[in-house]
What does this fold into?
Amino acid sequence: MAQGHTVVGREVHARIPGTRHAKGNYRKYDLVTMKDGYIYLHESKNGPGANYEPHQKAMDDLFTETGLILYGRYARRGGIAGYLDPSRFVINVVHQDV
It folds into this structure.
């Protein structure tokens, strides 16, 4: 993990503001960290067959416009549940072709 980041959740769900958990309205991030007041949403893709899927990219693009709602057990445990304005988070996609 990058220096200075604090892990606040794993397998955290995010959904489009104004919607409920339903197919097409949410996605899950592998790791969520915090640094300098910002939330970092990490998506890890490991291996030659691991792809950043079109629906994941579409959701990430939408979230950067509308913001997102972090929800579920892991978001609550990490104290990060609720709405996040696009100015408060960073989406980080890492692909390692191992």
About this structure: Strands lie at 6-15, 26-35, 38-46, 68-71, 82-84, 89-96.
